[in-house]
Backbone:
């Protein structure tokens, strides 16, 4: 009897087990990805739709955050990126460079102790200030100069 060299193929049971593991790993990854929608990229907290802060680049959302504090703490902000927030009154998305920010007694993200609100219209911002003891503040998402650039001669 003559032996012909052949490659040993795995048994059907072993192959079936491998396919099952592969399918389960893909399914669990999809579950994780679906579960991350609506969650803060920094701390994983659930994001209230009115409070979402989005890091944008060329019209695409790079990351979403539950608060201004989480957005400011994000270490990976590309040079040309911008921020998009929600108008306090309408809930419409607005570029953070064109809104008025107000800090008042009213909690915005209570779990983080944050009291910052964004308004597209100046009259709405001033009304909020009057009603809730607020003050206008600078854009909390504005780029800050590097420490070395701020101190010449170092």
Residues:
């Amino acid at each position: 009897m003559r032996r012909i060299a052949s490659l040993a193929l795995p048994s059907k049971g072993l192959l079936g087990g491998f396919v099952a593991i592969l399918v389960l790993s893909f399914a669990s990854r999809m579950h994780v990805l679906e579960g991350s929608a609506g969650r803060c990229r920094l701390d994983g907290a659930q994001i209230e739709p009115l409070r979402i802060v989005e890091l944008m680049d060329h019209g695409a959302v790079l990351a979403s955050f539950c608060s201004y504090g989480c957005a400011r703490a994000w270490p990976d902000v590309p040079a040309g990126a911008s921020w998009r927030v929600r108008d306090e009154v309408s809930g419409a998305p607005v570029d953070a460079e064109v809104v008025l920010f107000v800090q008042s007694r009213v909690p915005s993200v209570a779990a983080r102790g944050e009291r910052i609100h964004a308004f597209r219209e100046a009259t709405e911002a001033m009304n909020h200030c009057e009603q809730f003891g607020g003050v206008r503040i600078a854009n909390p998402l504005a780029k800050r100069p590097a420490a070395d650039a701020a101190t010449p001669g170092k």
